[in-house]
Amino acid sequence: MAALVYFKKSVEDADVVVYSFGEDASEMTRQLIVDKGNRRTRSGDGNIDYAFLKASRKINAVYEQTCEWPDRGMSAS
Q: Along the chain (77 residues), what's the average pLDDT of each consecutive run of 10 residues?
């Protein structure tokens, strides 16, 4: 069984990057917030589940490779 998580940057300022994310590209209703200082993530709804962890890991992996916060993307496994 495949697991897909989509994410899209919605806000970025000097301190944080906020992403919308979800398991359907047309319904990314949840938020993931990245603290730029320490690259830690937190869930906007407090729910730390598989979808949140997949999105968080992918966003941080792209940042590590490019030194830029991705505008959008997806993770599949």
A: 91 98 96 97 96 97 98 95
Task: State how far Cα 22 lies from the chain centre.
Answer: 9
Residue 26 has φ and ψ, to the nearest 5°, of -90, -5
Say whether pTM exceeds 0.90.
Answer: yes
The residues pairing with 34 across neighbouring beta strands, listed in sequence order, are 17, 41
> Burial letters for 36-70: b for 16+ Cβ neighbours within 10 Å, e otherwise?
eeeeebebeeeeeeebbebbbebbbebbeeeeebb
Q: Where are the beta strands (DSSP E) in the chain?
A: 4-12, 16-22, 30-35, 40-43, 72-76
